[in-house]
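User: Can you predict the 3D structure for this chain?
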Amino acid sequence: MNEHLEDAFFLRQDMVDRQLRARGIRDEHVLQAMTSVPRHSFIPGDDLKTAYGDHPVTIGYRQTISQPYIVAMMTELIRPQPGARILDVGTGSGYQAAVLAELVAEVFTVEIIPELAEAARERLLGLGYRNISFRTGDAFGGWPEAAPFDGIISAAAPAEIPAALIDQLAPGGRLVMPVGTDSQRLVVVAKADDGTVTREDAGAVAFVPMTGQAEH
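Assistant: Here is the predicted structure, written as structure tokens:
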């Protein structure tokens, strides 16, 4: 292991211990995924301290890669299982998709900004991920052809959860999404086996707004 990769490994382990485990992330599979994915590969430049810092990082086009704790918390909230199929709304840098790909069978990721979508696709394929499907476009309507999904995660906040996403959630599935305009709350939607939908408030968050159809 060269010095740069060794530094990255230790910073990543410290991130997991201090930012995630110490704040209550308990799912050992999620913690292992966060340890495995090289977060520094998903940000512009080569500053390891920036990559593993306790904050979001700008990735261009007025978008960000979420704070590590937020990524871990949202991933834990969907309760990922090895055979699951997950929809990732807002690919961004591809980091969330990579974390999910370590945990589940298939990830379907959608990004509305073409430049980010292509960069993320090249990055994820270059890192060896083969269980991720990519789409460039508006995720407001989900990905009907691939539905239903066992989990849905969104990195962008609409004013209200799109009905299409709830429809595409499989019985027993969970959706985690920031909701709101001036102030946002992280909402967890659970669909029971009989189709009944319940919602839970998981606290205040700050995400970029969902664009495209969500703006109309």
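The two ends are 50 Å apart (CA to CA). The mean pLDDT is 94.
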